[in-house]
Specification:
This protein is an alpha/beta fold. Helix content is 27%, strand content 26%. Bound molecules: flavin-adenine dinucleotide.
């Protein structure tokens, strides 16, 4: 029987969305393998209710390990203790990459990074990983008894099935080097209040904005939509210092899948496309009717964003009565 162990990242009493997707996917795969999905939370004083709530996404058991939160090495120590001959499935993101690499080295296990899909074939996991700028998919199987899957950020959908996980404490020892790093401050470059990966509506700005100050157009539009909206950016503009790196979408930035992705002054380079192509609805504003972004947009507006965005903002405000 192969159980799947999923690391659930949590912060200020909430489980990160990416981790919820990994728990859901882990539960689906464990079901096909005839095993169970077990989640693991590492932190100081993790509330039992938070751990139990992972049952709603399919975890039958939630292991709670007392240790420093948000650092990779203590998680590697805890997971190494918890894994038997099962398979580990993580969410992804920078911490996931670090944990996966550390765990692979510790256990001598195979690891696949940036995975976008996983299936069970002949009782074994097969991970799919896009390669060559997402133009091809490589399939990865494991020779080691433990296989480590690190998903691309938000690659797996969080599905609520209901239920509670049985909560168990996991005692483990921190390796000597785990204490060498300490979390001094936890924050984000763009400000902790903006959640690009979790936003339902993203207003993304590119070089077509012309200058840093014009990001105010995107911010005003995001504000007009209200609720779960945020501003994102291309690499060209973050490299130019117009917007924080934390907002960058694409191959070397974040992968997102909001309900609405509005691309303003973005050409649609392949490296940008790979980070946002799974968005439910893509709307592009570009003055060049031949811009590649229009090839994968649901709605394209050809024109000057300086004229279109303020009108759109007014229209959204009028519609919402704000
Ligand atoms: C290894 C590698 C990794 C990369 N990783 C990433 C990544 O993670 N994310 C990423 O985004 N890029 C990445 N890039 C860069 C990518 O190749 C593009 O250069 C970048 O995405 C272009 O950004 P842009 O669309 O803002 O700018 P541009 O390509 O310059 O496009 C600007 C667009 O704005 C339009 N425009 C101009 N003025 C107006 C106006 N007034 N109104 C409306 N439209 C207007 C133009 O017609 C044009 O289409 C990477 C490149 C490499 C080589």
């Amino acid at each position: 029987m192969a159980n799947i162990l999923i690391y659930a990242l949590h912060y200020e009493g909430a489980i990160n969305k990416n981790s919820l997707g990994a728990v859901s996917e882990g539960a689906r795969l464990a079901g096909e393998l005839g095993g169970e999905a077990h989640a693991i939370l590492v932190g100081e004083g993790v509330p039992a209710e938070l751990a139990a709530s992972l049952g709603a996404h399919g975890a039958s058991k939630a292991l709670v390990a007392e240790g420093p939160e948000g650092l990779a090495q203590p998680v590697v120590d805890a997971m190494a203790k918890a894994i038997s001959d099962g398979d580990a499935l993580f969410g992804g993101g920078l911490l996931g990459f670090e944990i996966g690499a550390g765990l692979a080295a510790r256990l001598g296990a195979g690891v696949a990074m940036e995975v976008t899909a996983v299936r069970v074939e002949g009782g074994e996991l097969v991970a799919e990983r896009p390669i060559l700028g997402d133009s091809a998919i490589s399939e990865i199987k494991y020779r080691s008894p433990v296989g480590i899957v690190i998903g691309r950020l938000n690659a797996f959908e969080a599905r609520e099935t209901g239920g509670e996980a049985a909560v168990e404490q996991l005692s483990f020892e921190l390796s000597p080097h785990a204490g060498q790093a300490k979390m001094l401050v936890r924050g984000e470059q763009r400000g902790a209040d903006v959640d690009i990966e979790g936003a339902d509506i993203l207003i993304a700005g590119g070089r077509g904005l012309g200058k840093a100050e014009n990001f105010a157009l995107c911010e005003d539009l995001a504000k007009a939509f209200g609720g779960s909206s945020a501003v994102a950016a291309t690499r060209a503009v973050v490299d130019a210092g117009w917007y924080p790196y934390a907002a960058q979408i694409g191959q070397t930035g974040k992968t997102v899948a909001p309900k609405l992705y509005l691309a303003a002054g973005i050409s649609g380079a392949i490296q940008h496309k790979v980070g946002m192509q799974s968005s439910e609805n893509i709307v592009a504003i570009n003055k060049d009717s031949n811009a590649p972004i229009f090839e994968f947009s649901d709605l394209g507006i050809v024109g000057d964003l300086n004229k279109i965005i303020p009108k759109l903002t007014e229209a959204v405000k009028a519609k919402r009565g704000t």
